[in-house]
Write a structure and sequence with these properties.
By secondary structure, this protein is of the alpha+beta class. The longest helix is centred in the middle third of the chain and has 21 residues, at 127-147. The protein has one domain (3-230): Endonuclease/exonuclease/phosphatase (Deoxyribonuclease I, Chain A), CATH 3.60.10.10. It contains five helices and eleven strands. It is globular and about 45 Å long. The strands form two sheets. It has a six-stranded mixed sheet. A five-stranded mixed sheet has the order 5-6-7-8-9, covered by helices on one side. Helix 3 runs parallel beside helix 4 (168-177).
């Protein structure tokens, strides 16, 4: 058996041409062919609230919203799409005073008749934010692993916004998960930064991690989607 995971910052469905195109994002999601997809910069407009349902139409995916911010136009934040059975869902507040609200989805799924823990998130822009958020995530992970004692795998994925390769957040994550491949995913016109990450414990389950680069993904968002195949 193999499992495909993906993380994708969809940039509110605004592509590199400046057009709002949910259909284009949905087409990319189908191209990913993943059983678990973490989405960032999801905006559910008040006059068109069914975006996540639209993404899941005609597929085996179910949407779990993790919205963190209410704007005049609508709600905004993260989401997780999955075709696996959902065992539990927790929403963790990662917001820092004076900064844009942030959060994480802690979701337990069933894979191979056993639980796996998935954390989907989008971290802050300032280094101090990310340090505090990673500390909170790792602390919550340790508590979650005690609760889900039979979990065969733990995954942290999303747009971590961490460009300091030897900064403390990445060092802490390497220590907890062991090193993981990190191809550059941002910006799509010249990808040089590995902002999008998929961390897996145990790391030996990773077959490969790659970005999906094609005609659609070069225009649909400012990030390339990141894919990981797990064995």
């Amino acid at each position: 058996m193999s499992l495909t995971l993906a993380s994708y910052n969809i940039h509110r469905c605004y592509g590199q041409d400046g057009h709002y195109q949910p259909h284009r994002i949905r087409r990319v999601l189908r191209e990913l062919n993943a059983q678990v997809i973490a989405l960032q910069e999801v905006e559910l407009l008040h006059d068109a609230p069914g975006l996540l349902e639209f993404f899941c139409d005609d597929s085996h995916l179910t949407a779990i919203p993790g919205l963190t911010l209410t704007r005049e136009a609508g709600h905004y934040g993260n989401a997780l799409l999955t075709s696996l059975p959902i065992l539990s869902v927790r929403r963790i507040d990662l917001s820092m005073p004076g900064r844009e609200p942030r959060g994480a989805l802690f979701v337990t799924l069933e894979y191979g008749k056993k639980p796996i823990v998935i954390i989907a998130t989008h971290l802050g822009l300032r280094p101090a934010e990310r340090r505090a958020q990673i500390k909170l995530l790792l602390s919550t992970l340790e508590d979650e692993e005690k609760t889900v004692k039979q979990a065969t795998m733990t995954v942290l994925m999303g747009d971590l916004n961490e460009w300091f390769l030897w900064g403390r957040p990445l060092r802490w994550l390497r220590k907890y998960f062991n090193p993981s491949p990190a191809p550059a995913s941002f910006p799509v016109f010249l990808p040089v930064l590995a902002l999008d990450r998929i961390w897996i414990k145990p790391a030996r389950k990773i077959r490969h991690v790659k970005t999906l680069r094609n005609r659609d993904t070069r225009i649909a968002s400012d990030h390339f989607p990141l894919l990981a195949e797990i064995v």
